[in-house]
Amino acid sequence: MGESFEHVSRAGLLAAEVLGHAPAAERLAGLPGEPVLLAIGAAEAATRRGQLLLATAANLLGRLFVFAPAIDVDAAPVSVVPGVPGLRAGRPLGAEVQTFLESLSPPASPFRYRAGAAAVSYRTALVIGDRPPPAPVRDAVFVGADAWRAAVGPEPVSLPAGGEDVFNPLGALVAAALGAAEIAKRIFLRLAEGHPATITPLERSVTWDLWQHRFDGTTAGPALPRRLDLGRIAVAGVGAIGSAATLALAALEDVTGTVELVDDDTLSVTNLERVVTARAADVGRRKVDVAARALRGTSLGTVRMAARFAIHAPAASAAETILVGVDSGAARRRIMNLLPHAVYNGGTQGSELLVSRHVGLEGPCLECLYPESTGAPPAAQECGRAVVVDELPEATIGFVSALAGFLMVAELVKDRMGGAGPLDAARPVARLDALGGTPEASCVEAYRPRRDCFCQSPETRRRARRTRRA
Ligand SMILES: [Zn+2]
User: Fold this and answer.
1) Can you give the pLDDT at residue 4?
2) Which domains, and CATH codes, for the chain?
3) Percentage of the chain with pLDDT > 70?
4) Cα separation, 418 vs 222, whole angstroms
5) Using one digit for the tens of pLDDT, what is the confidence trace for 68-127?
6) Which positions ≥6 away from 33 have C-beta within 8 Å?
7) Which of 31, 46, 291, 295 could form a disulfide with 238 if both were Cys (CB 3.0 to 4.6 A apart)?
8) 3-class DSSP string for 50-103
9) Widest CA span of the chain, in angstroms?
10) Nearest Cα residue to 157 out of 171, 169, 167
11) How much distance in Å is there from the Cα of 377 to the middle of ligand 1?
12) What's the 467 CA to ligand 1 centre distance in angstroms?
């Protein structure tokens, strides 16, 4: 990113893109007077899953900054349980979430966060659980989760409280991101002149089974095993997408392994919109240090590398599994050329996110998805829009990259469990427009290797076999 873009809000650019115009100042000025209510039912507030959903929703809504300048957090009088990233165990839940929200923006920012619902009628609320909100709400969004499932929409969805031995955070993380997206849609529509087709609130509630990527609410994945070893993995880039992957790793319970955190950048003010492990006080710190803090206290080891994957991997890197959260097609191609055994890739473009899985040179590689620009339009593909053009600065927003990072870790965990998710060599891509699309079966897409890609050459195949033996 160039210095001149340091203070350009990526969310502001995205708002202008989806609205077709920059939001009018007088409409933005009305938002502080209409707080968003973030409410959690008493039963959910007592659980780690409910608290994780609340903390993550607050994390993503708070980072909307000028678009959600006032948030009221209503929670039962319970204490924070251990193992909720961002919250300190033992503190009163509502006040702790308020403190967390306040830590996201520099002191003297014009934002207002409060614990407890006011005696007013709210225009918009995000409600965790299936109980009515604590105050009248004109337009409520309900979210819920169990182990592998995330539910979101205008009607409450009951998911049975699981008696799982090992906590699975993935459903809750994805539900929080989808819920934040629904709230953002309503805020953007308030700022719109007319009704832009780029923003479509869900008309019915959706349940996303992350294990199978099914959406009919009839399936649920298996419980996490007592012991799960992630091995040695690298997170390439701990900005928007990589920080979300790091947060998901931190929320997993008792998994073992070593995480290489690889990023040569420092945190800037505009990064606060999307780096979900960062607080305002972190501006100027190395991104790898901010990410490592999120993993402190977990059973995962960390190795920090203020470096990047280039023609060679960083000298200290030994990972054969790479979570790719870098910000350009060129950087992705460089990583693919190192021929790691497994790549879990996340990318965003505007309100759209893409997650792809590439294991052992079966199916298309990362360069098949992000070919070097030849100046000519890319060849037609079943998933043609997956081809991403490098642009600076990018119009994007926190819940989009967060969803990508969470889904990447879900695919990694599925592979480590030996499970068969639907992201495979034939259908390696999941894609969603977080403001204009609906989570549904068509989000998982088939994609073929490009015949002219380096991954199809005999030399590359030989090199991959040699690398594996080394
Ligand atoms: Zn390829």
Assistant:
1) 46
2) 3-209 (3.40.50.720), 228-469 (3.40.50.720)
3) 93
4) 11
5) 999 999 999 999 999 999 999 999 999 999 999 999 999 889 999 999 999 899 999 999
6) 70
7) 291
8) HHHHHHHHHHHHHCCHHHCCEEEEECCCCECCCCCCCCCCCCEHHHHHHHHHHH
9) 69
10) 171
11) 17
12) 17
- Ligand 1: centre distance to CA 240 (Å): 25
Going along 253-386, which residue ranges are E strands?
Answer: 255-262, 300-305, 321-324, 342-349, 352-359
Instruction: Count CB neighbours of 228 within 10 A.
Output: 16
Distance (Å) from CA 363 to ligand 1 centroid: 8
Strand duo 149-153 + 137-145: pairing: antiparallel
Q: Which two tokens stand for residue 182?
A: 């629904």
* 166 Cα to the center of ligand 1, angstroms: 37
At a CB cut-off of 8 Å and minimum separation 6, what does 110 contact? 32, 69
Give the whole-angstrom CA distance, residue 400 versus residue 377.
26
Q: How far is the CA of 357 from the centre of ligand 1 (A)?
A: 12
Alpha-carbon torsion, ordered 457, 461, 464, 465, to 10 deg: -160
Other beta carbons less than 10 A from residue 105's beta carbon:
19
Distance between Cα 449 and ligand 1 center (Å): 6
Q: How confident is the model at residue 197 (pLDDT cuts 50, 70, 90)?
A: confident
Please, which pLDDT band fits residue 382 given cuts at 50, 70 and 90?
very low
Three-state DSSP at 140 gives strand
Residue pair 189/137 in contact by the 8 Å Cβ criterion: no
Interval between CA 246 and ligand 1 midpoint (Å): 27
Amino acid symbol at 55: A
Per-residue burial over 247-279, b = 16 or more CB atoms within 10 Å of its CB, e = otherwise: bbbbbbbebebebbbbbebbbbebbbbbbbbbb
Contact between 339 and 463 (Cβ < 8 Å): yes
DSSP 406-442: HHHHHHHHHHHTT---S-SSSS-EEEEETTT---SGG
Q: Which pLDDT score is estimated for 468?
A: 67
Indicate the pLDDT class of residue 378, thresholds 50, 70 and 90: very low
Rounded to whole angstroms, how far apart are CA atoms 45 and 47? 6
Q: How many whole angstroms separate alpha carbon 351 and alpha carbon 164?
A: 34
Ion ligand 1 neighbours, Cβ < 5 Å: 365, 367-368, 453, 455
Identify the CA nearest to 37 among candidates 178, 189, 139, 150: 139
ipTM of the prediction: 1.00
What residue type is 202 in one-letter code?
L
Q: How far apart are CA 390 and CA 445, in angstroms?
A: 22
